[in-house]
Structure formats: structure tokens, C-alpha cells
From TrEMBL:
Domain of life: Bacteria
GO biological process, one term: fatty acid elongation
Keyword Cell cycle: no
Keyword terms: Oxidoreductase
GO molecular function: oxidoreductase activity, acting on the CH-OH group of donors, NAD or NADP as acceptor
Domain Ketoreductase: 21-206
Coiled-coil residue windows: none
Name of this chain's protein: Ketoreductase domain-containing protein
Organism: Brevibacterium jeotgali
SUPFAM superfamilies in the cross-refs: NAD(P)-binding Rossmann-fold domains (SSF51735)
Family: Belongs to the short-chain dehydrogenases/reductases (SDR) family.
NCBIfam families from the UniProt entry: PRK07231.1
Spans traversing the lipid bilayer: none
């Protein structure tokens, strides 16, 4: 047996070999979503990337295929029900099945005290962060129930969903909502063998946070609460996505996996 075969057998033995599994990653074309997609293809999964920007989608697919992975991108605005329905149909046509949805697509913004914000700010953030998650989960659950073989839903929330989201209340409300959706689905669909969990990123260096990273005063404040004294990276989410997709997590349901380098316990 070669080293590679031994490693594959070892990964399969603990439910981390994803060969034959198909995973949709919304917002998988950059940042945390792409970090998870890279981990997934390296573990053997086929990945469908859903994102709006077709150029960025294509670059992500090239990167994933460069790792030897099977990947395809589908132009999709998760806030648009017709787009989500079409993207799920295209994913099934291309890959033949679905095993896991990672509902990661999200937007930030709308910073400020509540009286300074408008209801349009709320609509912009919630349409993606909450409605997009709900629409994606509906499409995935319908597919998984039709297949009748169970599956996994992974919803990306945030520390803002469990801590005081000061000057970021609208975003925090959407991310707390994601956790509620997660708990609801974890109980609603367990009988169909579909488990639902959430990943809560801490402070991670991506396009979403590049302004904050560049602000030295803010960065100093953030990393003073991270025992590792650094921002996290998209790579920190690769193995979490693999674990929650693989059969090794088959009894993990309704949980919040915080990936923050210890920020919340400091
Ligand atoms: P990025 O801004 O780097 O990436 C966001 C991703 O979401 C992109 O792939 C983007 O693709 C996609 N996206 C945004 N809106 C839509 C939409 N309407 N339809 C489909 N795709 C969409 O952010 P991160 O990687 O940092 O964030 C990923 C997730 O992690 C988000 O849910 C975020 O809230 C959460 N998070 C991030 C933290 C951080 O510190 N970075 C901390 C806590 C949580 P496109 O623009 O092409 O559509």
C-alpha cells in the first residue's frame, strides 16, 4: 500500500474521506467559502460554488481544479429564489446528487448606531444573510429528502450572533437568526438523517474585513483578545467543513463550532 492509499484508508476510517460526496458552497468563490471549498476538494468531494460574480467564480473553479478537484461554479444570488432554484437544478444536472450545503454567502456593512441606519440597510443585509440562508436551506432540504439518504447542512453565522454586536446590530440580528434557523432545522430534519450545524468565524482576514485589517488601531484591539495574536485565515475553515460534511460527524447535530482562535474565551 502506498502512503497515499494508507492516508485515504485512514481518512475513510474516521469518516473524513469525501470521495463521491457533492457539496454546495454558497459564497464559495473567495474568502472563507473558498477556504472551505479548497479543503473539501482536497478531501475528495466535488464542489459546486454558488456566487454572483462570474469572473471570481471562474477563478475559484480554476483554483479548485488546480488542486485536482472536481468543481463547477453557478452564477447565483442567494437572495433571489429563482436563482437558487435554478442553481440547485444545475448543480444536480452537473453532479447528479447533493450531500452537503454550506450556506456561507454573507454581506456586512450597515455599521452605526441604530438611529443612524435605515430600514433599507436592514433589507440589504437580511436579504442575503437570512433570506439567502433560508432559501438555500429550503432548496437543499427538498433535494436531500427526495434523495432519501440524509445529508448535512452547515450554516455560517458569526460571533456577532452570540456577542453584543456594537454598532453592527443589523448584521448581528441576521447572524443570531442564522443560529435559530440552524437549531430549528437540526430538530426538524433529524428524522430524515439530515443534520444541521453552524460555524461561527471569529476575526478572519478576507475581503469583507480588509478595511478593518488595514486599520492598525482596530487590528491591535482585535488581536489583543486573540491568544494567538493574529487574525484568522480562510484556511482555518477547511478542516471544519470537511468534518461537518463527512460521516465522522454523523452524531453532531445542532452545534455551534466557533473558529476564533480563542477570542471568545479570552
Ligand atoms: P467575503 O466578503 O470575502 O465573501 C463573501 C462571499 O459571499 C463571496 O463569495 C460573495 O460572492 C458571496 N456573496 C455575497 N452576497 C451574495 C449573494 N447575494 N449571493 C451569493 N453569494 C453572495 O466574506 P467572508 O469570506 O469574510 O465571509 C463569509 C461568511 O463568513 C459570511 O457569511 C460572513 O458574514 C461570515 N463571517 C465572516 C467573518 C470575517 O471576519 N471575515 C467573521 C464572522 C462571520 P459574490 O460577491 O461573487 O456573490
Amino acid at each position: 500500500m502506498t502512503d497515499a492509499q494508507q492516508n485515504a484508508a485512514g481518512a475513510a476510517g474516521v469518516g473524513l474521506d469525501l470521495t463521491g460526496k457533492v457539496v454546495v458552497v454558497t459564497g464559495g468563490n473567495r474568502g472563507i467559502g473558498l477556504g472551505m471549498a479548497r479543503g473539501l476538494v482536497q478531501a475528495g468531494a466535488s464542489v459546486a460554488v454558488w456566487g454572483r460574480n462570474e469572473e471570481v467564480n471562474a477563478a475559484a473553479v480554476a483554483q479548485l481544479r488546480g488542486l485536482g478537484g472536481d468543481a463547477e461554479a453557478f452564477a447565483c444570488d442567494v437572495a433571489d429564489e429563482a436563482d437558487v432554484t435554478r442553481s440547485m437544478a444545475s448543480t444536480l444536472e452537473r453532479f447528479g446528487r447533493l450531500d452537503t450545503l454550506i450556506a456561507n454567502a454573507g454581506v456586512s456593512g450597515a455599521y452605526g448606531r441604530l438611529h443612524e441606519l435605515s430600514i433599507d440597510d436592514w433589507r440589504r443585509v437580511s436579504s442575503v444573510n437570512i433570506e439567502g440562508v433560508i432559501l438555500s436551506c429550503q432548496a437543499a432540504v427538498r433535494t436531500l429528502m427526495e434523495q432519501g439518504e440524509g445529508g448535512s447542512l452547515v450554516l455560517v453565522s458569526s460571533l456577532a450572533g452570540i456577542e453584543a454586536p456594537t454598532r453592527n446590530t443589523l448584521y448581528g440580528a441576521t447572524k443570531a437568526g442564522v443560529l435559530s434557523v440552524m437549531r430549528g432545522l437540526a430538530t426538524e430534519y433529524a428524522r430524515e438523517g439530515i443534520r444541521t450545524n453552524a460555524i461561527l468565524p471569529g476575526w478572519i482576514e478576507t475581503e469583507m474585513t480588509q478595511g478593518s485589517v488595514a486599520n492598525q488601531k482596530f487590528t491591535d484591539k482585535v488581536i489583543s483578545r486573540v491568544p494567538f495574536r493574529t487574525w484568522g485565515t480562510p484556511e482555518d475553515f477547511a478542516a471544519a467543513a470537511v468534518f461537518l460534511t463527512g460521516s465522522g460527524s454523523s452524531f453532531v447535530n445542532g452545534q455551534q463550532l466557533v473558529v476564533d482562535g480563542g477570542y471568545t474565551v479570552f
